Amino acid sequence: MKNQINLLNQLQELVLTRDEHHQTGDGSHMDALDQAIDDLVDKLEPQPKGLWQRLYKKSHIVMAPMSDGCCAACGMRLPISQVQQVRMAKTLQMCGSCGRMLYNEDEDAPHYTGEKPSRGEPTKTGISRFSAEELMICEIQGSSPAAAIHELAQAMSDNRFVSNPKALAQAAMERENVLSTAIGNGLACPHVRGVEGGGLTLALGVSQEGIEWDSEGSLVHLVFFSVIPVAVSPFYLRLMAGLAEAFSKKANRDAVLGATASQASLWKALVKATRLTIR
């Protein structure tokens, strides 16, 4: 059954990639993504295929990792006996609350390690809900997507937001190889889904010279790297749309590119540029 669970996870990632492309892409890769999805569905055995098709009608989040003995999608704590069944992966296990199919996270999978908001702490708004001044890189040193992503993953780790930057960067590049995350206007939005334990986290790196991001020659100056818990995958689409809208304006792009004297100035420029599109 492990092979089928792996296929189901690959299928979900392809579906969510298609959702992202529909939201921020030009539609040029939709046919190829549709075909890849159909091919994976055909490889499923009857039981997981039937479950997939039934659950997919309700939500595109069909698979949920088990995190700390809980369903990462809805937060329900699982019975100890079911936790063991999920770990053994001999049969498909369903969450008793949300009905999604469960799978076990790898032991060395990246996790959110940042501090949880304390009671009484002022509610954050806008881009501050997902990022922070210490996650701003004023000038990316690397000249390739892999190097840029590694630098941003390392910044998340160094500032105690996420663990295992090496695995994080590798997962981001695996996603990048499925379909480029360059979305035009000099932006790229690489990301890793399934980083549990906290909320969506975003880091920004600037490249004045620009990074050739893909085989289509996309030149990227602003790299927004995100880690995404499974439960907030639909919200990530809104975040991407907000970033794309904000930086479709040349004035906002120029303001951020011109604010790299310090992390503080870059952070201030990012907050201002996104104040109307990210709530």
Question: Overview of this structure, please?
Answer:
The chain is α/β, with parallel strands linked by helices. It has helices at residues 2-24, 30-43, 46-56, 80-88, 145-158, 165-178, 233-246, 250-257, 263-273, and strands at residues 63-67, 70-71, 93-94, 101-104, 136-137, 182-184, 187-188, 191-193, 201-212, 219-228. The strands form two sheets. Strands 5, 6, 7, 8, 9 and 10 form a six-stranded mixed sheet that branches. Strands 2-1-4-3 form a four-stranded mixed sheet. Strand 1 and strand 2 (70-71) form a beta hairpin. Helix 5 (145-158) runs antiparallel to helix 6 (165-178) and helix 8 packs antiparallel against helix 9 (263-273). The mean pLDDT is 95.
Largest sheet: 6 strands, mixed
Count of DSSP helices? 9
Classify the secondary structure makeup into a structural class.
alpha/beta
End-to-end CA span = 42 Å
Number of E strands: 10
Question: In percent terms, what proportion of residues is strand?
Answer: 15-25%
Mean pLDDT: 95
Shape designation: globular
Q: Give helix % range.
A: 40-55%
Integer-rounded radius of gyration = 19 Å
The ordered string of helix (H) and strand (E) elements is HHHEEHEEEHHEEEEEHHH
> Uncertain runs with pLDDT below 50, 5 residues or more?
none
Concise summary:
With 279 residues, the protein is α/β, with parallel strands linked by helices.
